[in-house]
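hiii, so i know i said id send this last week but things got crazy w the move. better late than never?? heres the sequnce for the chain we talked about at the cafe, plus the structure i predicted for it. fair warning i was half asleep when i ran it
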Amino acid sequence: MAFTERSAATRTAILSAARRRFAGDGYERATIRAIAADAGIDPSMVIRYFGSKADLYAAASAIDLAVPDLGDAGDAAAAYVRAFLARWEAGENAAEAVLLRTAPTHPDAAARVQAIFDKEIVPALRKALPDAPDVRERAALLLSQTLGIAYCRYLLGIEPLASMDVGDVAVMAARAAEGHLYGARTASTDGGGTGGDGGAAV
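okay and structure toks below
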């Protein structure tokens, strides 16, 4: 569909309303009628522009992380954390918020998170760590770190993380990320801890 200036504005309003509803109510509870009311239009217009609730959800949660070049292996952890925090601090996270809020109860959303991990995050880290045979497992642990920050700082507002200086968050999170990317996978033989070298992608 070719969009005029007016129709493009309507489409943007629908997407904004849909993101708020999907993030706030979840996929199952969000309705076309409620989204239309939030956008100030008739429900038929939502169907006209997006076809179905499923198609609207797909558009509202479409993400291109545009993971930047992470440099060499020594800088990858800090570079990834900085890029992640910059996106969320700038408010460029509406689609991510929809996915993260709906993924626990909506299988399609969880599958899309997996696809983003496989197609965007792992390749970026594999480029930065070309000699790491277990880069996928390390990337999964790094993702768990940043998703934890997203949930606690930005979605749930858990204190003190929610009000910490972003620079402090970046430094401390980068240190943890370094452990995920560069740390040994096996436990030391002279101390406690659980051994094993298994790892699973999220």
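btw The chain has a mean pLDDT of 87. thought thatd interest u
miss u guys!!
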